[in-house]
Amino acid sequence: MTAADLGPEGTRPPPTRRRPGGRTARIRQQVLDAVVAELGEHGYDGLTTDAVAARAGVHRTTVYRRWGDVGGLLADVFDAASDDDWQPPDTGSLESDLAALNQEIHAALTARPSVVTALIAASFRSEKAAQAQQRLWEDRYARCEVIVSRAVRRGELPPRTDARRLLVAATAPLYHQLVLLRTTPDPHMPGQAARTAALAAAAGAFTEPPSTRGA
Amino acid sequence: MTAADLGPEGTRPPPTRRRPGGRTARIRQQVLDAVVAELGEHGYDGLTTDAVAARAGVHRTTVYRRWGDVGGLLADVFDAASDDDWQPPDTGSLESDLAALNQEIHAALTARPSVVTALIAASFRSEKAAQAQQRLWEDRYARCEVIVSRAVRRGELPPRTDARRLLVAATAPLYHQLVLLRTTPDPHMPGQAARTAALAAAAGAFTEPPSTRGA
Q1: Structural domains in chain A, sorted by start
Q2: Which residue positions does the secretion signal occupy (chains A, B) (predicted)?
């Protein structure tokens, strides 16, 4: 588990592994890996800059100077995660793309310990982390819009389909059930939520009325 | 704002107001109101049993003895909220019932301060609170199943419709966007999510295959 295993969609190696940038990049990677490991083991309450520095094998003043506090460390975990080349699944149909995407989310949210769930929880504690999480989610949903544009090109969906609303509808039930309602994980959940969104999309649920796009 | 204003669906007066139960019930109400007020003003980090006791005007040992700690106090806020007679909206159609339900959720999640959002955040801090929140949500979703059974009786939906999945699909986008993604509140959101779920339901998204119900 690395700092970049963030879901909803990310299970890519962190960027500093792919683009080794010398000592600074290496230290960043060590520190962010240590944040994720400490968070997974002890939760937010056990997460301290000192523990992160010790685990990463760097001097505590390095951590203070560069990241400031726990919120700054968490924010950088989110920021590092979006600096990758993750792309959503491309399986040939809207429903199966959404199902594959939901499988990634389901896996991230049901991993034990789940770094994603721990980071979501931590974002309720730190405004800096919350803002970075918002940026990461915005990035992930923006990348996923290609799922919808491909479906439009294939003729599966009408051109004026609101991609973001469709993607939120497809993925929201997983977050709601696994993070908030804490229901038992169900292997059918990813496919069912994908099918629900695809059926609603085909029925025009996400089609913007022409008026909203001007004349 | 009282301890019972919990959403997704509850904006009822707390039970102890409707069924005055003497001193014990009155103290419980004072204490739970104080928990909600302290949580709204200071968040979880400012919530202490001493501050709650002071605000409620009861002795601190009364709070310790009866609720133990902050987790116990929060759990009782959730438990008190489900001890009411809240029923979901009954407007005559599936889509408008879901839209009215979503309006209640949207109002609860966008109130400032939002007690519901503060309680969701607090549930990531206390296992006792998290379990009580799960019980309350289970209670609320169970009560909402009548929305689906009424639609089945009206012939809007096939008999073998999975009520819970439909209700989660209808409501999840609001929680996802307002609590996790923290997108800007949008007055169209409740109706759009309701329409999406109703269209998916009409297209058979929540219809259980006969095999799952046996012969």
Answers
A1: 15-82 (1.10.10.60), 94-207 (1.10.357.10)
A2: none
